[in-house]
Design brief:
CATH architecture of the largest domain in chain A: 3-Layer(aba) Sandwich
CATH topology of the largest domain in chain A: Rossmann fold
CATH class of the largest domain in chain A: Alpha Beta
Number of domains of chain A: 2
Number of helices of chain B: 24
Strand order of the largest sheet of chain A: 6-9-10-3-11-12
Oligomer: heterodimer
Largest interface: A-B, 122 and 135 residues
Distance between the termini of chain A: 62 Å
CATH architecture of the largest domain in chain B: Up-down Bundle
Order of helices and strands of chain A: HHHHHEEEHEEHEEHHHEHEHEHEEHHH
């Protein structure tokens, strides 16, 4: 029965999400046919089940009523032969009534047990998951912090997976330089970035920050170095200022405005009725995608980190804002190590170092001009987005 | 019993708390309907088609309840025979009843004498098992029929409910087919889905449990009460005292616990909100060093929830023992009073026994009615939500004398078109555009700029406010929507594929499509090779989370779909670079093949398409800001120029 319900839900969900396509191709009658089939099947199954259940209660009543009758018959015999006092007869009947209500209760409860058990299993599943990233018990700190990141023969593979997401990746990202990653979806760009803050750990090789393996550093200390702007901009419920101070509780108001300015968010925050104290609803739903992205960039800037991880962070911005923001940001973070993952080729053209990934391997690295000359994959990607003269 | 869960309810994901009489009373806050009576009435009127069956069901329930109500009385009679036989056996045989009474009176046992005087004791004669067996046989027959009727009613009721629910579901489905696109765009899709699934399930539950159970409970209370009064009005009054007494305590305690339940739900909501936010923003929390604060916030919320839940559960848990205590005290009172009356001969033993059985039966349906009211209320709330959907405004019907076009050439003219989604936000004003058959129109602009608006108007997903759009010289409003849309093919970025085989997806709804045409379409879309390489070929199933089919391949399948439909006019939403490079080349190639010889509207992301287009529309914030071809627009140095230039700015340096 659950299967049939799932089927209906599936058909409906597809219909609602695909309403444009369905209407465009004039396929409403076909979808209605699918639905009424699924609905009919559900009705038949539900009918069968409820009808089976309908017999439960009357038969339970019958059993208990018949046992009352039996009590009087056999009790009467016992009373007749003097083996039982007559009062017990009445007592017995009263007991049967009590049993009746308890049995009902038990039946009711027994219907709940499988559901409770299923819930318990799900909770257990969550509790049994092992944390894959474990903090070092004896963390050490590098002598100096400047944000130099080095990948040495890094590989990553999900447990049980046949193929590695990343294999044998080595490069150095220097402070003050921009390192960009390009490649198609699934080439491992985001996975690579996630290794730096240890959202996941390498399965071979090592990631060094300031000369020390990230796994040997204290997590809080490591994260302190990073300004992360996730792919999907996410804001927390509260005010704009609270969100900006998310990673730097004591930042001054001036610092907040400065960050907003860099992130090209100053104008629209200025226009908000309560400026910095304007409310942000959960997830940032009261801001547009582009505004969220800019606020989320400002949030990272307020931290003044050594390392910026920009994971496709400009996707919701229009071209003009994208350009202004990037130039302001790179200007402002001159001494920081900047990592950029981008879908738009135009975003990465000016990076100091572009690393081209394909199926988890580095197939080229260098500047735009170097890569155009000697990396076929890069050239393909660029030409799929830009015309030859634009790419030159 | 109302607590009998029909398995339907397992589908509802938000019923963590038992929904029996007790659960319903204190579990989830009952969803309140704005117009309870109206919704209920309308829901009941939906049952109109089942009038005959419903009448049968009511007759069956009534008969069953009344038959069942006679049971204890008959058993009481049988007990009397047992009792009298028991007494008679203890008297010397051969004497008459009056002699026995006299003898007892002379021994000073006046009460016993009085009792026997009113009974049918025959001294010296034991239990009349023949009479007992007749009575018991009668009881068995009554009980058998009572249960049989109850079962038949349950069987019929299941049919009534399920058929009604099926009908409601179909109404909702047909309604979805007639709703304007505006509805889908402005309402939450999850909410719509939930109205058609969860709410209908809930209606099904409350119909199944509510209707017959309420009738059953009310009739049981009435008939049991009648039997009690018939047996002994005095005892009946005594046992009725239990009702106001229990009600008083239940309400007092219930009110107190209600406050705590509200607090409990309040804290649950806050805790869930916190968990959801922390879960979505988990990585941010970590990197920005907010782990400890998130944990301590959770703990304090959790602590508050624990406290309010504990109080709520504890206080509401007092109700049952209290009412149980009251009913037990009443039970003792009835036993004592009844015993006294038996001793004085005012009542027979069997009647007392029957009375006790009745008084025990009395409480249960009362408690049930309280719970059922909640079930019905929540059903009415769901019904209201469903009716809102059914009452939503529909698309204007097509013109009765609409023109039919077989295959359009593809000349499209927008003339002085005005359009706005919201009455106070004009979007497109005085827009005119002439597209000759075979031309390409590119629509550019940042995400969310309203590039789909033009598509919405063209395909009449939305109707224009003023002006006209003509297809080959005919106003598109004079065509039927279906006929108009048949002229278009659409390839959208969010590749909408449904669960089914590959070839079903390409033929999209064509019953029994010609395999050759499907293959031809697939070949044209560069996907034939891929489909053949699948284990099931064209018959392979495509599911929601099909990891074997990449985003690019999905796109190709939708292109094949457009080839299969072979429309005169195309609407293409170019893929962004979420596709690997090799597939990307295939997609572009297939798209340009598809464009050949057809009028096309391309939502463009690539400069190559834009530059070759016969006309370019630049959209921003839902407005159409510029219009012209590449050279014109570049010369104008406006938004288009900026957009174009920004892709090549040397801003990084």
């Amino acid at each position: 029965m659950q299967l049939k319900i799932d089927r209906i839900n599936l058909v409906l969900r597809e219909q609602i999400s695909g309403v444009r396509v369905i209407r465009a191709f004039v396929r409403t009658p076909y979808e209605e046919l699918k639905f009424s089939q699924a609905s009919g099947e559900l009705m038949d199954t539900t009918l069968k089940v409820t009808r089976t259940f309908a017999i439960m209660f009357p038969s339970l009543m019958l059993i208990l009523n018949l046992s009352s009758v039996a009590v009087i018959w056999f009790g009467g015999k016992l009373v007749d032969t003097g083996q039982m006092p007559i009062g017990n007869l009445t007592a017995f009947l009263a007991y049967i009534m009590q049993i009746l209500s308890s049995v009902m209760m038990a039946v009711m409860m027994s219907l709940m047990i499988p559901r409770a058990a299923a819930s318990a299993d799900r909770i257990k599943e969550v509790l049994m998951i092992q944390t894959s990233v474990v903090e070092s018990l004896t963390p050490s700190a590098p002598a100096e912090r400047n944000g130099r990141v080095e990948f040495v023969g890094v590989g990553f593979r999900y447990p049980g997976a046949e193929q590695s997401v990343l294999s044998n990746i080595s490069f150095v990202a220097e402070p003050g330089k921009i390192t960009a990653f390009v490649g198609s979806t699934g080439s491992g760009k985001s996975t690579l970035l996630n290794l730096i803050p240890r959202f996941i750990d390498v399965t071979s090789g090592s990631v060094l920050l300031d000369g020390l393996d990230v796994r040997e550093q204290a997590l809080e200390d490591l994260w302190q170095q990073i300004g992360w702007v996730p792919q999907r901009a996410f804001l927390f419920g509260g005010t704009v200022a609270e969100n900006l101070r998310f990673g730097a509780l004591d930042a001054t108001e001036d610092a907040l405005w400065e960050a907003l300015d860099v992130a090209q968010a100053k104008d629209f925050v200025m226009e908000l009725p309560e400026k910095l104290n304007s409310p942000v609803s959960q997830g940032g739903a009261n801001f547009s995608g582009g505004q969220k992205q800019r606020l989320s960039i400002a949030r990272a800037i307020v931290r003044n980190p050594h390392i910026y991880l920009l994971d496709d962070s400009f996707s919701a911005l229009d071209f003009a804002t994208d350009v202004k923001l990037r130039s302001a940001l790179f200007h402002r973070s001159k001494s920081a190590t900047v990592f950029v993952v981008a879908q738009r080729v135009s975003t990465v053209l000016q990076a100091d170092q572009i690393i081209v990934l394909e199926q988890g391997e580095v197939v080229g690295s260098g500047t735009h001009h170097e890569l155009m000359a000697n990396c076929k994959t890069y050239k393909e990607i660029v030409l799929s987005q830009l015309s030859p003269e634009e790419a030159a | 019993m109302s607590s009998r869960e029909t398995p339907v309810s397992t589908a509802r994901q938000h019923t963590p708390i038992m929904r029996g009489p007790m659960g319903a009373m204190f579990g989830t806050p009952p969803a309140k309907s704005k117009d309870f009576k109206g919704s209920l009435k309308r829901l009941l009127s939906e049952l109109g088609a089942e009038r005959k069956t419903l009448a049968t069901v009511m007759v069956l329930i009534s008969t069953s309840v009344i038959l069942g109500a006679f049971g204890p009385k008959i058993l009481g009679r049988a007990t009397n025979y047992v009792f009298y036989g028991f007494l008679g056996k203890r008297m010397s045989p051969g004497i008459s009843k009056s002699e026995a009474i006299n003898r007892l009176q002379s021994q000073g046992q006046d009460r016993l004498a009085a009792m026997i005087g009113k009974s049918s004791v025959i001294p010296g004669v034991g239990i009349n098992f023949e009479a007992v067996s007749k009575l018991l046989l009668l009881a068995i027959v009554l009980y058998l029929f009572s249960s049989l009727f109850m079962w038949v009613q349950g069987y019929l009721m299941a049919g009534v409910t399920q058929r009604t629910v099926y009908r409601l579901r179909r109404l909702a489905e047909e309604k979805i087919g007639r709703l304007p696109l505006r509805y889908f765009d402005t309402q939450s899709r999850g909410d719509l889905l939930s109205r058609v699934t969860n709410d209908i399930d809930n209606i099904s539950n409350s119909l199944q449990q509510g209707l017959s159970q309420i009738l059953n409970s009310i009739l049981t209370v009435a008939s049991v009460l009648a039997m009690m009064i018939w047996i002994s009005p005095v005892l009946a009054i005594v046992s009725l005292i239990a009702i106001p007494l229990s009600a008083f305590f239940s309400v007092r305690i219930g009110k107190r616990s209600q406050r705590e339940f509200i607090a409990q739900w309040d804290w649950t909501g806050k805790l869930n909100g916190h968990v959801e936010e922390m879960h979505t923003g988990h990585s941010l929390i970590k990197v920005f060093g907010r782990r400890d604060r998130a944990i301590s916030e959770f703990s304090s919320l959790n602590e508050r929830l624990y406290e309010s839940s504990f109080r709520a559960q504890f206080i509401s848990g007092l109700i049952q023992p209290t009412t149980l205590l009251i009913s037990n005290l009443i039970y003792v009172a009835i036993a004592v009073l009844g015993g006294y009356r038996v001793a004085t001969g005012a009542m027979t033993l069997g009647d007392v026994q029957a009375f006790i059985q009745y008084s025990r039966q009395f409480g249960m349906p009362l408690a049930q009615i309280a719970g059922l009211i909640n079930t019905v209320q929540s059903g009415a709330a769901s019904a209201e939500r469903l009716f809102q959907l059914l009452d939503a405004q529909e698309e204007e019907p097509d013109l009765a004398n609409s023109i039919t076009v077989n295959r359009a050439r593809g000349d499209i003219v927008f003339k002085d078109v005005f359009f706005k989604y919201n009455p106070d936000q004009p979007l497109i004003e005085d827009f005119s555009l002439k597209v000759s058959a075979g031309q390409t129109v590119a629509i550019v602009g940042p995400t969310g700029a309203g590039k789909t608006t033009i598509v919405n108007l063209l395909m009449r997903f939305y109707e224009i406010d003023k002006g006209s759009i003509t297809l080959d010289g005919t106003d598109i409003r004079e065509l039927s929507r279906d006929n108009l849309r048949k002229q278009f093919g659409m390839v959208l970025q969010d590749t909408w594929l449904f669960t089914g085989t590959m070839s079903e997806n390409i033929a999209f709804g064509e019953i029994d499509p010609d395999a050759q045409s499907v293959a031809r379409a697939a070949k044209a879309a560069n996907i034939d090779h891929f489909l053949r390489s699948l284990p099931g070929g064209y018959g392979s199933m495509l599911t929601d989370d099909n990891s074997t089919v990449s985003a690019g391949e999905r796109q190709l399948i939708t292109i094949a779909r457009a080839f299969f439909a072979d429309p005169a006019i195309l609407i293409l939403d170019e893929a962004t670079s979420s596709v690997d490079t090799r597939t990307e080349v295939l997609v572009q190639e297939a798209m340009s093949k598809l464009r050949a010889g057809r009028t096309s509207f391309v939502i463009a992301h690539r400069l190559s398409t834009i530059r070759g287009a016969d006309s370019i529309l630049v959209m921003e914030n839902g407005h159409l800001v510029e219009q012209g071809n590449h050279i014109d627009l570049m010369a104008r140095k406006g938004r288009y120029f900026e957009l174009y230039a920004s892709q090549f700015s040397q801003a990084l340096n």
